[in-house]
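We close this part of the discussion by returning to an individual protein. The amino acid sequence and the backbone structure tokens for this protein are reproduced below:
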Amino acid sequence: MNFNLGGLLFVFMIYQPSTAVEKIHSCLPGSVKNICILDHVFYNRSLNIKHIFPQNYSIVHIGNDGWKKGINSVIQAFDGQLYAELGHPPVLESLTAEVEMLEIPRALSYANFAGNRIEAFWIEEGDAEPQLSYLDLGQNGLSRLTNITAFVNLETIYLQANQLEVLELYVFKNFTKLKVLNLNYNLFTVLSGDLFPPSLIYLGLEYNDMTTLDYGTLQLPSLKVLNIGQNSLRTIDVAQLLLGLPKLEVLRLSHNKLSHESLRSALEVLRQRNISYRDESSKVSCYYDSEQIEGVCMERQPTVGGRVKIVLLSILSVLIAILFVLLMYWVYVFMNK
């Protein structure tokens, strides 16, 4: 059965009565011309409250200002009606406001809903072409991106720290303007290169669990930065990788499971191509069980001497255990004479 999720979602909300109590919201002191910062927005259409928001601002920010901790606004469902009440701002940020369901207005050009609880989102009903060019849905609970296909004008997408495991083949097929795609901190184990549009300049795949790269399909002629650090790659063929990335300038690959020999071979190829690979952090930022190799943090590997030491310690532990058993047996025999 076909049905419009966006149209049915708000049926549960009670119609606003004419005798509703008015809640007048004001921009925080310090807000500048065309920018309105709102906090303590507790919005629930089922309550007997009529919210009145400031109008004629091109940028509206709701919720945490990035400096304070905790939650100071709650908007469980954001839709076109609330967007209209806010005055149709082309730029909207609603951070850590407990948003669970999101209907993205077609007129919105910049949307930042990071740090919420969004598991589903969709586009507002209508015929107008969606204007959205920037979308940040990082730190939410997304497991699928089916409804993102409508936003073909997107140039920047942040989807870090969600629950994404698989990308459908068609998701970014028509995204001819997409330049930045951040998929860091998700659950991908393998990704095919043909999932990504050739217009990409930045691709972030850090902190996933990828074990292999599909070199043959990774054809991104405009890509300048590729971040594949913090994965589970045990091998990497940089020369083959670069065949599909002719304009690559930066490759981040720290904290994988590469042998030091494989890493040094890869770094040699990158040096020859004048491609940056050094971590931006200093040596002290490597984990306690890692070491820095030519500016790249990689898992520390035991040396030959270290392996011998481990074997000797294991043998010593076994001998001590045998001696302890013999001692206890001797005590038992002596006590029972």
User: Anything to note?
Assistant: Confidence is low (pLDDT under 50) at residues 9-16. The CA atoms of residues 36 and 60 lie 5 Å apart. The chain has five helices and 19 strands. The first helix runs from residue 5 to 9.
